[in-house]
């Protein structure tokens, strides 16, 4: 069994993805770690979320993961040499009602890691906010937007399909206020959002 005690989470995700590829199991990184990567570590997580995009069997997945020393415990795969856990959210690969057909690949420690595109990570976070009113997801979306020069108006159609004009206005106001104040950290963005919700304009 490999020892992942000193392996960082992004490198571990790449190790797992490449190992699974050897088993003909295709995966794409989604969720919190995708946010961590695109926000340049403004958001931190201990979970690796990988969607199996070619629908291999759970049995094959477990066999492949066991070769790396990961064993299923509830919904996640754990390894005794690391606190990082791996989860496989159900396919298909989608954000809201949109199926994803384009992905990105980043190089990590000489390994290739398939990951959602920046815009789809933002849509994923916006979807979590729209459907579950998860404010942290809205903050994460804005953090990634500001890091990658993405504009709120690029996501208006998506938000209106998934939510309403109210959420469009909130996203725009949060983004504009953050830009005016040059707020980038999660704490700064949360402070702005809380202030907006307590004292709406």
Radius of gyration: 18 Å
> Which secondary-structure class do the elements indicate?
alpha+beta
Measured distance between first and last alpha carbons: 57 Å
**General shape:** elongated
**Percentage of residues assigned to helices:** 40-55%
Largest sheet, spatial ordering of strands: 1-2-5-4-3
Secondary structure tally, helices: 8
Low-confidence stretches: none
N-to-C SSE series?
Answer: HEHEHEEEEEEEHHHHH
Number of strands: 9
Let me know the average pLDDT: 94
Largest sheet: 5 strands, mixed
Percent strand equals 15-25%
Structure characterization notes:
This protein is an alpha+beta fold and 201 residues long. The chain has 8 helices and 9 strands. It has helices spanning 9-22, 31-38, 58-67, 118-132, 135-147, 156-162, 165-181, 186-198, and strands at residues 27-30, 47-52, 71-73, 76-79, 82-87, 94-95, 98-99, 104-108, 111-115. The strands form 3 sheets. A 5-stranded mixed sheet has the order 1-2-5-4-3. Strand 8 (104-108) and strand 9 form a beta hairpin. Helix 5 crosses helix 8. The chain is elongated, with a radius of gyration of 18 Å.
């Amino acid at each position: 069994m490999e020892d992942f005690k000193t392996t960082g989470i992004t490198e571990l995700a790449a190790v797992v993805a490449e190992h699974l590829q050897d088993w003909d199991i295709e995966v794409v990184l989604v969720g919190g770690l995708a946010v961590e990567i695109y926000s340049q570590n403004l958001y931190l997580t201990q979970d690796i979320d990988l969607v199996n995009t070619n629908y291999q069997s759970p049995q094959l997945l477990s066999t492949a993961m066991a070769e790396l020393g990961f064993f299923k415990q509830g919904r996640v795969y754990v390894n005794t040499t690391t606190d990082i856990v791996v989860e496989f959210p159900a396919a298909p690969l989608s954000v809201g009602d949109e199926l994803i057909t384009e992905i990105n690949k980043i190089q990590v420690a000489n390994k290739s890691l398939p990951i959602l595109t920046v815009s789809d990570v933002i849509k994923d976070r916006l979807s979590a906010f729209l459907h579950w009113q998860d404010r942290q997801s809205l903050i994460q979306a804005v953090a990634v937007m500001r890091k990658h020069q993405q504009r709120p108006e690029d996501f208006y159609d998506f938000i209106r399909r998934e939510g309403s004009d109210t959420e469009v206005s909130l996203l725009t106001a949060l983004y504009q206020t953050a830009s005016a104040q040059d707020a980038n950290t999660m704490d700064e963005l949360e402070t702005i959002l809380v202030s907006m919700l307590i004292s709406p304009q």
